[in-house]
Amino acid sequence: MPATQQIISQFTCPGCSAILMPTGHGATRCLSCGWRGEAYLFTPSMIVASGAEAALPDDATCIHHPSKKATAVCSGTGDYVCSLCAVDINGQTYSAEYLNGAGKATVGKAFDRRLRRPDSQARLYMVLFLIPYANVVGAFLIPHGFILYARALRLRREDELFARLMSKTSVVLLPILLSLIGLFWIFIIVVLTMTILRQVQ
Amino acid sequence: MSVDLRSNSTLGRMSFILMDGYLIQLEHRYTEDRVRKFRYESIDSVIIWQKAPWLRMILCAVILGLPGIAILFFSFRSGFNSNDVGETFMVVTGSFLCALAVGLITWYFYCKKTTIRIVRAGNHHDLSGMFRPGRLNRFRTRLVDGIRNVQSRLQAQHMESSPAPDTGAGSPTIEL
Q: Cα distance from A40 to chain B (closest Cα, Å)?
């Protein structure tokens, strides 16, 4: 799609919603409410939607625009849609009408991206280990540490963002720390069992 | 972990990363992060302002400072005896609470509550938190420079791809 540049020369004051036109970049002040801050204005590129291709007599047509040629099938309704109606979300094409009907929350969730964090999971286990009765799963932390290690390695390969967030050292430390906690738990259980057995004898 | 800006508050932890022409916001949760990306080329404006977090500062003074002062007051009013372990403990506790309150209030006043407003296509999204001034300055410089570079590059590409307007400079003129 073609893009055009748009020059921004004003912004809305966060304090009183007045329109401010800063003279230069940087420190700015609102004369009506006294708000002080910094404003940096840019020239964003605006994507201009080109008109959908007109349909020829034998062409499939868009369900919402009968004179336009269909270019995709909506994954939600199965209808033919033109390039104006088609919205691509996570590799699936939906029509704008379908998304509009689904509601803002559903559409928002569809655009939501999440990044799995095995390191946060490991941190959570470490905290849980300190809570009495929740730490009975301590022994399972050893195999689970290695599962998280494999997951973190794969994520580092596949996701550049994760690779930036988690260094190689942190990935290696993950199973080591969890194994140490697991071993500590096993040691405590063995010591407790032996103490009880001695007292019984 | 290389994160450009980090915010820790009672309501949630957040990190901001500048990467590959994007401002990435990570909302940390227990086992995953929610990722929000802002493309440099679509950002209209960035507005940054700071406010002193008065509520936090007052809460700090009430919860830590006042009990500390009260403990010190009652210890010294009854005549402080350094040989008495109980009284020494009271003075140490009171001093510790006062120092903690003063330290936290100073820290809050130094960092201030910062809001970074990103405006895209008329809609704004606020990123707020308490950031160290040095880190915030570096982040702001990198963000603003990054946006300017990306947008000027796009502008240059746009100028190159669009045909030059026909001014008639090179066309033959007919004199009547």
A: 5
Q: Which of B24, B34, B154 sits opposite A161 (nearest CB)?
A: B24
Decide if A164 and B2 are in contact by the 8 Å CB cutoff. yes
| Predicted ipTM of the assembly | 0.79
d(C-alpha B157, C-alpha B152), whole Å: 9
Domain extents in chain B:
5-52+112-137, 54-110
pLDDT above 90 coverage of chain A, percent: 11
Given a contact cutoff of 8 angstroms between Cβ atoms, the answer to whether A150 and A186 are in contact is: no
CB contact (8 A) between residue A3 and residue B158: yes
Domain boundaries, given as residue ranges, for chain A: 3-47, 51-113, 118-200
pLDDT in tens, B35-62: 988 889 888 889 999 999 999 999 999 9
Q: Please give the residue of chain A at the shortest CA–CA distance from B156.
A: A5
Q: How high is the pLDDT of residue A182?
A: 86
Token pair for A67: 């004179």
Residue A126 bridge partners (DSSP): none
Q: Give CA–CA dist A183/A189, Å, rounded.
A: 10
**Amino acid of residue A96:** A
Q: Count Cβ neighbours within 10 Å for each residue of B19-29 and write b for 16 or more, e otherwise.
A: eeebbbbbebe
Q: Cα(A93)–Cα(A73) distance, rounded to whole angstroms?
A: 7
| Contact state of A164 with B48 under an 8 Å Cβ cutoff | no
User: What is A13-79 written as a DSSP string?
Assistant: -TTT--EE--SSSEEEE-TTT--EEEEEE--PEEEPPPPPPBPPTTS-B-SS-TTBBP-EE-TTT--
Q: What is the DSSP letter of B112?
A: -
Place of tokens 């063995």: A190
Burial environment of residue A121 by CB neighbours within 10 A (0 to 12, 13 to 18, 19 or more): buried
In tens, the pLDDT along A66-105 reads 888 888 898 888 889 888 888 877 677 888 888 887 766 6
Q: Do A35 and B49 touch (CB under 8 A)?
A: yes
- Total-model pTM: 0.74
Six-digit token pair at A132? 């009495």
Suggest the residue from B19, B28, B41 to mutate for an interface test with chain A (most A CBs closer than 10 A): B41
CB-based contact (8 Å) between B31 and chain A?
A: yes
A133-156 mean pLDDT:
85
